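@channel sequence for tomorrow's demo:
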Amino acid sequence: MTEARIDFWFTMGSTYSYLSVMRLADIERARGIKFRWRPFHLLLILQDMKHVPFADKPTKSHYMWRDIERRAAMYGLPVKVPAPYPVKQSVTANLVAIVGMREGWGVDFVRAAYRRWFQQGEETGSEPNLSSSLRDIGQDPARILALASGEEANKLLLSATDAARQLGIFGSPTFAVGKEIFWGDDRLDDAISWLQHGSVRRQ
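structure tokens (generated this afternoon):
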């Protein structure tokens, strides 16, 4: 029998994903929820949709940073905004995350990279964030970056992105319970309700 879980779809260039990344471990412990972390390359899907994100919309960007700041305060998460954005090397961070998920340290890397991005202002996917995040979790940057630049990692990321596309995912973070998807950090409780009850129930 397949273990009941929520798939956590995220891309390393996503700002709002910080709010989820930093609190899923506590939710797992407190509520007995299992998450499977699924990095994917959202930019490819957005390009297919001809969708331009926040970067060239100053009013919307200002709202995004203030919204993240408010919600981080609600969760008790430290945050320093605006963080560097848009992220120039998100695909590199996604590739490292893919390698890490396969080897078992991916979740720790994602947390370390987001912590450095949103608390220390180091852009994810670029140096010094990339190597420092790997060292933070006891990994050798030279070995990991060599694996991340290889053909196998690229195939894994493209396969994950195709799976996200097939589910109808168009944003990060997205939570999926089977084929039922919930977009946005603020929809996590809905996803948990669906996992537990098969419906969205008022908390």
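heads up for whoever presents: Residues 26 and 32 are 10 Å apart (CA to CA).
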